[in-house]
């Protein structure tokens, strides 16, 4: 993408979503840093789709301005209705970008899509991978703890809480057991569950596209996944310890969020 186009789209994104740290320009900039890692380490391998992938990274969350649940489809509608002149002239590239943006929320059939080994599904898979790098590691946890209005740990009756804790333990130990129903249950319940779900989700996305990645980008992703797993395990230990030992889990002297998450990404 030309520099002038980047500046133009950065202004549009900022106008539509201001400085929303979760889905606005700060999020796009963090995902673009991972795109640069991917491009640097895999330029020859991915050269046919790199330009389209960069466009998709910039534009994939435009539809969130309307608070739509299906923001991928909403993004495509907005782009075609208001920003046709700013889009690539190449019709095939435009279709590929729109396909990736429209379907980037469809995580659960990603394995089947990538098996097609066609250009547009590789583009889609890499967009999902890059997008999910922003929900793991230090940046992902910082984003979750700052922007998510949910409690630190599950707040429910003892039996239900025990079931939730057991589900967290299970996914931290074996991410392959993540199921479609976990998404809405875990991401809206507590920070502990939200972080655990994001970890398991990112692991499964990584597995789907791993054969296309170089050691360079794999190392970055593994570092982030390791951070998320350790952080989730730490939170889990605080939740299951007796309260008379750890005190108030919201106390940063006991639960040092600031010590573990520097905030340098925001």
Q: How would you describe this structure in keywords?
A:
0% strand; mainly alpha; Hypothetical protein af1432
Task: Give a structural overview.
The protein is mostly helical and 266 residues long. It has two domains: 1-135, Hypothetical protein af1432, CATH 1.10.3210.10; 136-266, no CATH class. Helices cover 67% and strands 0% of the residues. The protein contains 14 helices and no strands. It has helices at residues 3-17, 25-46, 50-59, 71-82, 91-103, 110-115, 119-132, 137-147, 158-173, 182-187, 191-209, 215-240, 243-246, 257-260. The relative contact order is 0.11.
Mean pLDDT: 82
- Helix proportion range: 55-70%
Distance between the termini: 25 Å
CATH superfamily heading of the largest domain: Hypothetical protein af1432
What is the topology?
Elements: H1 3-17, H2 25-46, H3 50-59, H4 71-82, H5 91-103, H6 110-115, H7 119-132, H8 137-147, H9 158-173, H10 182-187, H11 191-209, H12 215-240, H13 243-246, H14 257-260
Q: Care to give the gist of this entry?
A:
This protein has helices at 3-17, 25-46, 50-59, 71-82, 91-103, 110-115, 119-132, 137-147, 158-173, 182-187, 191-209, 215-240, 243-246, 257-260.
